[in-house]
Amino acid sequence: MTEKLEQLSIKDIPPPPPGTVFVDDASGTDDSSAGTLERPFQTPAYALYSSPDAPIYVRKSADGQFEPISASMLKKAKKGVDGLVKKIKNAEETAAKKAADDARKLEEAKKIVLVNDSSLPEAKRIKIRDGSKSRESRVVIQGWVHRLRLQKGLAFLVLRDGTGFLQCVLAGDLANAYSTLTLTLESTVTVYGVIHPVPEGKSAPGGHELAVDYYSIVGLAPGGDDAITNKVQESADPSLLLDMRHLVLRGETMTGIFKVRAALLRSFRRVYEDMGILEVTPPCMVQTQVEGGSTLFALKYYGEDAYLTQSSQLYLETCLPALGDVFCVQESFRAERSHTRRHLSEYTHVEAELAFLTFDELLVHIETLLAKTVAYVLEDPEIAEILSKLNPGFKPPQLPFLRMTYDSALDWLNERGVPNEEGEAFKFGDDIAEAAERKMTDEIGEPILLTRFPVEIKSFYMQKCADDPRVTESVDVLMPNVGEITGGSMRIYDLDELMKGYAREGINPEPYYWFNDQRVYGTCPHGGYGLGTERILAWLCDRFTVRDCSLYPRFAGRCKP
Ligand code: 4AD
To answer: Ligand 1: which of 431, 505, 535, 537 to mutate, most ligand atoms within 8 Å of CB?
Structure first.
């Protein structure tokens, strides 16, 4: 500090002695914690009031120097202090009077006893979503206080019960009661009353509001420092918000996303049902890899080596001869080190496997599934409304999707000067990494079926193309804003070919004996794919990151709460 003060000394101006308080009319603030060089006071009067014996240095203009306060300025400041003392005293008196008034009001409020009038009709218990059907008759609803506004003689609270939001109006004693004056956000309440349409020109969720005739508190949430608004602030650091995920989930954006998520999974299941594809539940604890050893989560399983599954594909393949075409909705696990906006360590993987089909048929199946699923999601008016708020510009994908081979994607990128990961022009065999892929999807602006990837950059099980053995019958579905949402392929169905695949990737085929047997006991051409639920949601709900689309996202460094 002394060093800093000495640096301030120029020509004829003595360095400020220790204990100096600083004043800067342009950038200062008059509050009791200010006065330092970094945070000066605004006025000499306040400086003198808060530190009567300290030397004062003043800066008159933003580009000027701090100089000792002049005698005339000090004289003026002394006069200013008298006014300041008066002003502060007045403010203190007003605050004390208000506090006494409030305390008196609260004491008065305690005398009000709320009673559930037994002469009123019996209330029917409903959920908020059934409000429209239950207008004009007495109902009882339980939920959480989502919003709260106290006005003279009236209290408005928006109640949330997970099925919707309902505005409740409290008047008279109900508004003036102690429990209402001290009510807090996120408290749980039971409200009784009658739902009426809102008056012309007013708006409320569902177009109606509950005229409350009685209510009681089930659990009072904390106010003050511990109030939810202090625990969860939109502008807070993302990592703090993730620590508080259990409370963040209650916000309207999050509840919207998770309702869309439920609708998405429901719609996938409905399309699979329409297509006659059966749901199965493969294991999560496995002893084989699917998508490369580097992202395996290893664990000890009663003394044996095991992993958390990366994909249920191999197990789905074994179901084909038993159950025909199958799908699953299962958690997949990837020990991804990279902190990207589209990678999670655990994600919900929708996977399907189909027997006796061609690569072209697989592509048609995938685009149909996606288009139909989105159509089903939008069929639900509640979900369509949520989506119109989250992603107002959303356009449902149109069939057929654009088809593009890996080769022509490289040409597309090279023509536009988009470099590969080494900063050079793309050449055959290069991975099209996230940035380049995003550039392509965002510019093309519609779903792309990107096909025929080189053997070396794809997994051991992928079938080679009959017309070009350098490439595979593989497909990634790319969507604007997120890039790859689906990866699929035809599978090698010849045992010898499969053995070559293991050898190329340095995988010991032994633990895969059960998978290899599919090629022994009645092999067949087949293919399948995996869809990343959180990536599809990021696309549907226009989220910057897949982390918003997972209930409790897991990624490197995050496994709580
Ligand atoms: O492309 P992937 O790795 O393919 C497979 O796992 C195949 N065995 C699936 C199959 O054919 N049955 O993953 C498929 C999809 C990706 O397109 C992506 O949407 C999602 O799973 N995905 C991830 N999502 C979030 N975080 C990660 N770390 C993901 N890795 C893949």
So the answer is: 535
Pairing type for strands 326-333 and 278-279 reads parallel
3-state SS, residue 67? strand
Contacts 24+ apart (CB under 8 A), 282-289: 282/309, 282/312, 282/315, 282/316, 282/328, 282/330, 283/309, 283/315, 284/308, 284/309, 284/330, 284/331, 284/333, 285/309, 286/315, 287/511, 288/314, 288/511, 288/512, 288/515, 289/507
Helices (H), 189-288: 228-231, 238-243, 245-248, 252-275
Could you tell me the CA-to-CA distances from 484 to 322, 342, 447, 448, 478 in Å, in that order?
31, 9, 10, 9, 4
**Separation of alpha carbons 207 and 489, rounded Å:** 49
Note the pLDDT tens digit of each residue in 119-159: 999 999 999 999 999 999 999 999 999 999 999 899 999 99
Q: Look up the pTM and report it.
A: 0.86
Compute, in angstroms, the gap from residue 340 CA to the centroid of ligand 1. Answer: 14
Q: Which pairing describes strands 21-24 and 56-59: parallel, antiparallel, or unpaired?
A: parallel
Is the beta carbon of 530 within 6 A of some atom in ligand 1? yes
Judged by DSSP in three states, 141 sits in: strand
Tell me the CA distances in angstroms from 241 to 18, 124, 260, 348, 544, one per residue in order: 42, 38, 21, 22, 16
Instruction: Report the separation in Å between the CA atom of 329 and the middle of ligand 1, taken as the mean of its atom positions.
Output: 13
CA of 486 to the centre of ligand 1 (A): 6
Residue-wise pLDDT for 369-387, tens only, equals: 999 999 999 999 999 999 9
